[in-house]
Specification:
With 217 residues, the chain is mainly α. It folds into two domains: 75 residues, lambda repressor-like DNA-binding domains (434 Repressor (Amino-terminal Domain)), CATH 1.10.260.40; 125 residues, no CATH class. Helices cover 54% and strands 6% of the residues. The chain contains eleven helices and two strands, in the order H-H-H-H-H-H-H-H-H-H-H-E-E. It has a two-stranded antiparallel ribbon with strand order 1-2.
């Protein structure tokens, strides 16, 4: 039977990704170790994904698509066929994951560099600072939390048809709102409507003003 003709029962549960991956290994006749070797990742990570302990990132899904020709849509949602023509916009998914990680560090961890980048995005000024070596270093080294993968998929689905000129700001605003909802709230500040604090952020040798007020969570 041609794998391209195999139809999979649709499911909206991201937690079923491990089950679909197990089905894929059985279909293509590979062990976990051989599968991991071909993707150039550790067998332990593959095992964790299969058991639902870890959620894979865009690079993992893209690697499966390139190496085995498997539909990313099917891996994520179970919809369509194993090698369906519908494709996930990988660059968009990567951008969303990165924005979520920035928002997490800015809101929950109070990271100054992340706050600076967040404000640059909100003010459409990130391109102007793209050559800053400190910003590049921060973005290259930022780590994605596996627990944020479901949020990335939700934002992807919600902004897929958004005007591209507004997409980046809107996605960041949604990510910020999500993490702000998870921070402890000061009831007194809420009741007395404390004014926002204006921040001047410095993430390199040159002082840079973010250009707008930042609301501390």
């Amino acid at each position: 039977m041609n794998n391209q003709d195999i139809h999979i029962t649709p499911t909206s549960h991201l937690d079923s990704l491990g089950t679909r991956l197990s089905s894929l290994l059985a279909m293509i006749g590979l062990s976990q170790s051989e599968f991991a070797r071909r993707l150039k990742i550790s067998q332990g990570f593959v095992s964790d994904v299969l058991r639902g302990i870890k959620k894979p990132g865009a690079e993992f899904l893209y690697a499966i698509k390139i190496e085995f020709g498997i539909s990313v849509d099917w891996l994520l949602t179970g919809e369509g066929t194993l090698k369906g023509e519908t494709q996930i916009d990988i660059p968009l998914l990567r951008m969303i994951q990165l924005q979520i990680s920035i928002a997490r560090k800015a809101i929950l961890e109070k990271d100054i560099a992340a706050k600076s980048i967040l404000l640059l995005i909100q003010n459409n000024k990130l391109n102007e600072a793209a050559s800053d070596s400190e910003i590049k270093k921060f973005l290259d080294n930022i780590e994605h939390e596996s627990e944020d993968f479901s949020l990335a998929i939700e934002l992807y689905n919600g902004h897929l048809l958004t005007d591209e000129t507004l997409r980046q700001r809107n996605i960041m605003a949604s990510a910020v709102a999500y993490f702000e909802s998870r921070t402890p709230k000061d009831s007194i500040n809420i009741l007395t409507q404390i004014q926002p604090i204006s921040l001047s952020l410095n993430i390199s040798s040159n002082q840079r003003n973010a250009g707008r007020d930042y609301y501390e969570g």
